[in-house]
Description:
single chain, disordered N terminus, alpha+beta, about 15% helix, 4-stranded antiparallel β-sheet, 7-stranded antiparallel β-sheet
Amino acid sequence: MQHFSLCAISLLLCSFPLVKTSFLTPASMRPSSLYQPGGEPNMNQDIKSKAEVIRDDVYRPLHLPRSKTPTGEDYSERKLTRAQKKLLYPTPEDLVRYKEFLRQPSSGLIRLLPRGKYENFIVGSGDHTRTRQDNYLPIPGGGAFYSFTQRSHVLGQRSDILLKHGLLRSGFVGEALGLMVMLGDIPLDSVAVNSPGVDYLATFVPPTSLKDADDQHKRNSEGFNAGRYLYMSALPVKPDTTYALRSVAYEIDDILIVFRVIRQDDDGSVVLLWKRIQKFQVRKLKE
């Protein structure tokens, strides 16, 4: 595993040499970091052929962004231009098509953009300057991340899902676990906490010791079978497919989400229809 330390904003878009670190470390040593699971997971051949997991993404840390830029301007989707919002959000036609579904509580329709595609950072005269071009998004993560609790694309501790290299990723935030399963081409409204494949996630008990949480994180990254289902922290994008996600952020949130990939557009972005079907008691990690 590898580590690097630079200012929070530069790390959002740049890659640097890394040194070894640990996913979950004692409280006195824990960095405020993101860890993106990767490596060569133990998947079945169908998923493995599509995943194309990048080896150097194993536990790569990215420091969480500060709430404000060096100039004092806050990162907010509300400040995007009309053209930028059009780039980030689903189309009006999508919203009309799923209007009835979206009347349900704790549901939504979002677009995830490929990591790095719409991020832009210019360095000049020794100062960092973020551009305002309409084909770039001036928010941390560039629209590749999403928090179902905060309903925000801004990268942060509550981010639950990430789109990168054709993979949907979870459990990439420091002191968090993510576990997903592909349920197949089934209607989203038919999925409940006791549905096959989802029931395992609903009854999963997150470990509370640092060692056990670290072991679980590695197990999630490698993938494992329970019954006839494969569970992993990263799965390939497959249109017209329904997924379930258990997102555990210690001391913050613990939620069970089901979502469906409505489509994948030409730029690599994906449109997801989602709803939260259960919320769990938040747990704390012990030394």
